[in-house]
Specification:
The complex is a heterodimer. Chain A is mainly α. Chain A has one domain: Formate dehydrogenase/DMSO reductase fold. The relative contact order of chain A is 0.14. Chain A contains eleven helices and two strands; from the N terminus they run H-H-H-H-H-H-H-H-H-H-E-E-H. By secondary structure, chain B is mostly helical. Chain B has 16 helices and eight strands. A two-stranded antiparallel ribbon of chain B has the order 1-2. A two-stranded antiparallel ribbon of chain B has the order 3-6. Chain B is globular, with a radius of gyration of 23 Å. Chain B starts with a helix and ends in a 5-residue tail after the last helix. Classes of the chains: A mainly alpha, B mainly alpha. At the A-B interface, helix 2, helix 3, helix 4 and helix 11 of A face helix 2, helix 3, helix 4 and helix 16 of B.
């Protein structure tokens, strides 16, 4: 039951991370529209779909509190500043989103503002929050100064990597520009470099994770080689496959770290067993999650299907 | 200002801001769905246009509501750690369920708002509004059950701070749940409808010399919105009456403080307006026996006075203003639509006169204030407790001085977001006004 609950938190956070990276990275294409050739893919994806993204964060957050109340006093006190800074950045980002996606006017300054706040948001989230959960580290500890930059870099790189792969697939230009091809290659190499740096800092600042991550790293290396070969040899093609590989690379790294952390929730202060709620409450909430998933997963699939496919009427 | 006061200011501003957007998040889906339904059934293009135009407002207000909702969920955790530590053990189920309801709302908002031209059969598109209505209402319901729990905590055993025998269902469906959830959700529907009526009234005033189709559209929007407002205002008054009786029986100190009743008495008076002083309400309009009638349906009902309670547990008497404001505006929300329809039947010209339009516009603005006053009455009326009888407010907040800075930053952000949201809405409707 504890692992089921932890999986719910991790999966919600993973989906949030993917969607949030795509959404935040979209602002790169808003700031430089000529990269894709047009803004249509960005606009037709963002408007219907982005309102659901934050719900994944709320789900992960509430599930963390609901299933693991024992850990709550630890992280709620330690993470007050990162959370509030994250909310401020998110707030700034929402103002930019409202101006650009819902108002008729969207000047270059506002696009730049949205771009900066959008890239700052995942960086603040990853750098501010992850070091505490993975190593119990706060800015008072030396390990934090290793982990925080490592997570900041991977968050930034993931945003560029996932969003460029996604929107290249969504737009599928028949004659991709040299700049788009360069961006896709750069994003892949940047992501792989950031992952390498992250593994290095984890080895030094959170060595307990390295014990369980070897399988994930092997898979990651294999996928990286395939992606590199396709990216270098078949430039400007296979956008769908490259998106799948990008998601697989990110998932391997994300789940590799997350599940290597278990059974610790906050290392070394709390495990998923010591922090777990009472079994009766957990049973009710897991049941509710299962019932909700029956309705929500197909509905979510429909939403993304409608947002990603060209306009046409359905009977 | 100390840390707890800063935290309370932070939390208060966050709640006030969120409730403003949340009420529209609950109310607009119903209005849009009803307008589309009438449009399809009667083949009326004006109602279809109404539904489409309101959908844009629904989407933009949802964005603002979603970010304030995200902020609230995080702020609860970091600002009130002792409170959330307690809640997470006893009544976290509604939070979980609220998340799924919020999910349903967000998904179907995306589907509904962006598929107007994607389905050949209009009924299919209308059907997608139903999960949106259910999701938004369920979201409000679940989160309000937690607030009800804070007034009537149950479903656990507390022995020297050690919590055991937790039953989340019992905690969720506490005695305050029925009255509190119905009263708040009905009020959101009534307020949203009244705000639409107010917008229609403004447009109507501006279109005095407009062409016939524009006048017809304005008349339909005004009449439809006021009809919905009237139905839900009546429902709100009925639910509010039950809520008052519940408070009189289960939180008598709050009931007494709302009318400054010091001594326990039968035939207790209701004092409208007046000035709050430490010894009670002065110079108000006294209506003998009305408070007893509100409390128990009879003039002989005994209303327990504040003197029966330890003064350190008295809620602030300022809640009298909130209570009176909420009740007064609630009555206005019933009377104004009645007046409009009575005039429309007998003197149609008067129903659409400038004076009537102004009355509707002002009542629309006041209806939003009534919701805010209602929540202020609820929250301030529970003081000095956050969870009645269990946890004092001073013990519920964090002691981190970091809060001081953010208690300033976030209200500024809320103001900016409110301005940007208003600007987006106004500029959109201004630009599309000619399309009507």
């Amino acid at each position: 039951m504890e692992y089921c609950a932890a999986s719910l938190v991790v999966v919600s956070l993973f989906v949030y991370a993917v969607l949030f990276c795509i959404e935040c990275g979209a602002t790169l294409f808003m700031a430089e529209p000529e990269l894709l050739g047009s803004e249509s893919a960005v606009r037709s994806y963002i408007n219907p779909a982005w309102e659901t993204t934050n719900v994944f964060l709320v789900t992960a957050f509430i599930s963390l509190i609901a299933f693991f109340p024992g850990a709550f006093p630890l992280w709620s006190r330690a993470l007050i500043v990162p959370f509030l800074v994250f909310l401020v950045v998110m707030g700034a980002r929402i103002i930019g989103m409202l101006r650009i996606f819902y108002a008729a006017k969207s000047g270059r300054v506002m696009r730049l503002f949205l771009f900066i706040s959008s890239f700052a948001a995942p960086v603040v989230f990853a750098a501010g929050i992850m070091p505490f959960f993975l190593a119990g580290a706060t800015p008072a500890d030396g390990s934090w100064w290793l982990l925080a930059p490592g997570f900041a870099m991977i968050a930034f790189a993931s945003t560029v990597f996932l969003s460029s792969s996604f929107f290249a697939y969504a737009e599928r230009p028949s004659h991709p520009s040299a700049r788009l091809n360069f961006l896709l290659r750069f994003a892949l190499i940047f992501f792989l470099s950031a992952a390498f740096v992250l593994v290095f800092v984890l080895e030094n600042a959170a060595p307990h994770i390295m014990a369980g991550i070897s399988t994930a790293l092997t898979a990651f290396g294999l996928l990286a080689v395939i992606d590199l070969v396709i990216s270098l040899a078949r430039n400007g093609r296979y956008f769908g496959l490259r998106l799948l590989l990008a998601l697989a690379l990110f998932a391997t790294l994300f789940f590799g770290i997350a599940f290597s952390q278990l059974p610790y929730l906050i290392y070394p202060a709390a495990t998923i067993f010591t922090a777990f709620t009472d079994p009766a409450s957990a049973g009710i909430m897991l049941g509710a999650a299962a019932v909700a998933a029956v309705f929500l997963v197909p509905a979510l699939a429909l939403l993304y299907y409608l947002s990603l496919h060209k306009k046409r009427e359905y009977k | 200002m100390d840390v707890v006061e800063a935290g309370r200011a932070f939390m208060g501003s966050t709640m006030a801001f969120h409730i403003f957007f949340a009420l529209f998040g609950v109310g607009i889906p119903l209005m849009v769905s009803l307008a589309e339904l009438i449009g399809i059934v009667r083949g009326d293009d004006d109602f279809m246009t109404m539904a489409k135009r309101w959908t844009f407002a629904m989407t933009v207000l949802f964005v603002a509501g979603a970010i304030s909702g995200t902020i609230i969920s995080v702020v609860f955790a970091v600002l009130l750690p002792p409170f959330m530590a307690f809640i997470s053990k006893v009544v976290i189920l509604p939070f979980s369920l609220e998340t799924y309801a919020f999910f349903l709302e967000a998904i179907f908002l995306g589907i509904y708002a962006y598929t107007w031209d994607r389905f050949k059969n209009k009924w299919v598109h209308w059907l997608t509004s139903l999960p949106l209505i259910i999701g938004s209402a369920a979201s409000a319901f679940f989160i309000t059950t937690v607030n009800a729990f804070m007034t009537a905590p149950q479903g656990f055993t507390d022995v020297n701070g050690v919590i055991s025998n937790v039953n989340q269902w019992v905690a969720m469906f506490n005695p305050a749940t029925a009255t509190k959830t119905t009263h708040s959700i009905f009020s959101y529907y009534a307020t949203t409808a009244f705000v639409f009526a107010a917008i229609a009234a403004v447009q109507f005033m501006r279109r005095k010399r407009a062409d016939a189709p524009a006048r017809r559209y304005g008349e339909k929007m005004l009449a439809f919105s006021l009809a919905v407002a009237f139905i839900f205002s009546i429902a709100t008054v009925v639910a509010g009456d039950s809520s008052a009786r519940f408070i009189a029986q289960n939180a008598p100190e709050q009931f007494a403080a709302s009318e400054g009743v010091m001594q326990t008495e039968q035939n207790a008076p209701f004092t409208a307006l007046g000035i709050v002083t430490p010894s009670g309400i002065k110079d108000g309009i006294v209506m003998p026996g009305l408070l007893s009638l509100l409390a128990g349906g009879s003039f002989r009902t005994v209303v327990v006075g504040l003197s029966a309670f330890d003064p350190s547990t008295w809620p602030p008497l300022i809640i009298h203003y909130y209570f009176d404001g909420m009740v007064g505006i609630g009555i206005l929300m019933v009377v104004v639509p009645l007046l409009f329809f009575a005039l429309w039947k007998r003197r149609a010209r008067w129903a659409f006169s400038k004076a009537m339009s102004w009355t509707i516009f002002v009542t629309g603005l006041l209806s939003v204030a009534a919701v805010e006053l209602g929540w202020m009455f609820t929250e301030m009326g529970r003081q000095p407790y956050t969870i009645r009888g269990i946890m004092f407010t001073k013990d519920a907040f964090t002691s981190s001085p970091t809060v001081m800075a953010y208690a300033v930053i976030f209200p500024v952000f809320y103001v900016v977001l409110a301005i940007v949201t208003a600007w987006v809405l106004v500029s959109h409707y201004k630009n599309t006004d000619h399309q009507r």
